[in-house]
Amino acid sequence: MKQKFSKHWKASTQPRKQRKYRAKAPLHVIKRFLSANLSKDLRKKYGKRNLTLRKGDTVKVMRGKFRKKQGKILEIKLKTQKVTIEGIQITKKDGSKVNVRVQPSNLQIVELNLADTKRIKSQQEKK
Q1: How far apart are CA 97 and CA 82, in angstroms?
Q2: pLDDT in tens, 73-123
Q3: Coil, strand or helix at 106
Q4: Residue 6 within a domain
Q5: Counting Cβ atoms within 10 Å, is residue 59 exposed (0-12), middle (13-18) or buried (19+)?
Q6: What is the pLDDT of residue 111?
Q7: Is the pLDDT of residue 62 over 60?
Q8: In this structure, is residue 19 part of a structural domain?
Q9: Which terminus of the chain, N or C, has fewer Cβ atoms within 10 Å?
């Protein structure tokens, strides 16, 4: 089996090859996987369907136990490809609360973190 990551891989119908591609991808490629779709008003404003997630973005959970809850992104884990959201926690048996990590595909961006000027400029140029 090849150890090197292939940049020229297009697609396969086999789920095992898709999982392998995502698992063995380098961090700069994984960053592109961590994107979520925009809300309807943001789609009209930026003319895009989805954007990569950033710390500080406000997101809404669309699927699962915490559906319809909103919160700011606290951290993004590239290795596990998961996102931690403020206010979304579970209570453990001992009574302590723990943040829940959510898959980005189950999120929708409601409000963008516009503190980074490069992010704003890149969106305006593409528009």
Answers
A1: 18
A2: 999 999 999 999 999 999 999 999 999 999 999 999 999 998 888 877 777
A3: helix
A4: no
A5: buried
A6: 94
A7: yes
A8: no
A9: N
| Number of domains forming the structure of the chain | 1
DSSP class of residue 16 equals H
90 CB-near residues (< 8 Å, 6+ apart):
97, 98, 100
Contacts of 24 (CB under 8 A, 6+ apart): 5
What does the alpha-carbon distance between residue 8 and residue 46 come to, in Å, rounded to a whole number? 30
**Range(s) of the domain holding residue 50:** 37-126
What is the rounded CA–CA span in Å between residue 15 and residue 21? 10
What value does the mean pLDDT take over residues 54-78?
A: 95
Structure tokens at 23: 């698992």
pTM of the model: 0.84
CATH code (residue 66): 2.30.30.30
By CB atoms closer than 10 A (0-12, 13-18, 19+), residue 57 is buried
Residue 12 belongs to some domain of the structure: no
Separation of first and last alpha carbons in the chain: 42
Q: Is residue 44 part of a domain?
A: yes
Mean pLDDT of 44-49: 90
**Which residues, in sequence order, are bridge partners of residue 36?**
51
